[in-house]
Known about the structure:
The chain is an all-alpha fold.
Amino acid sequence: MRKTKEEAMQTRASVLDAASQIITRHGISSFTIESVAQEAGLTKGGVLHHFASKEDLINALIEQVIQAYQTRLAQELEVEPADQPGHWLRAYIRTVFSMQYEDKNLIPALAAALSSEHQIMDRVRISFRETQRAAVQDGIDPVQAMIIRLAVDGVVFARALNLDVMDKETSQKVYDELFRLTGSTGVKA
C-alpha cells in the first residue's frame, strides 16, 4: 500500500522521535537502526526508506535541533525592535532561556556521535560562526557581546549535559543580568 506524502512525513517524524527516545533513554551506544525501528513500530526497511543510514538519521536529528533553535530565535527577533542595539542578543537570551530541554541526554549523545563526523561538525561550526557574527554586530561593544553570548552558550551546555545548577530564582537573576548587559531590562523568562 502506497502512503500519501503526509503519511510519509508523519512516519519520518515518528522515526526521528523514536531515535531521540532511544538516545535519551539508553545512550548513543544503544542507537541502532533496529532499535529505532522497534521503537517506531516499523521494520528496519521502513526506517531505511526514510534514512539511508544511521549517519543520515543522526544528521536529521542534529538538523532538527538546529531548526528548532533557529525557528524560536526568528520568533524572538520579531518581538525586538531591530533598530535598537543589543536586539539580537536579547532575542538569543530569550530563546535559550525559554527552550525546553526535556531531552537533556540527546544533545550530549549527538555531540559524541558527531565529534568524528567532519561534515556534521562543519554544519555546527557554521551555525556557531553565524551566531558569533550576529552577536558582535549587534550594536553594543563587541567584547561585551561576546561575553554575553558565551555566558548564554554556557547555560545551553550546562543544561544539555544535565549540569544545570541554577534554580528558578537564580536562573531569573542570570537572565535579568544578561539582559541588563545588552542595555535593556529583562522581561520574565
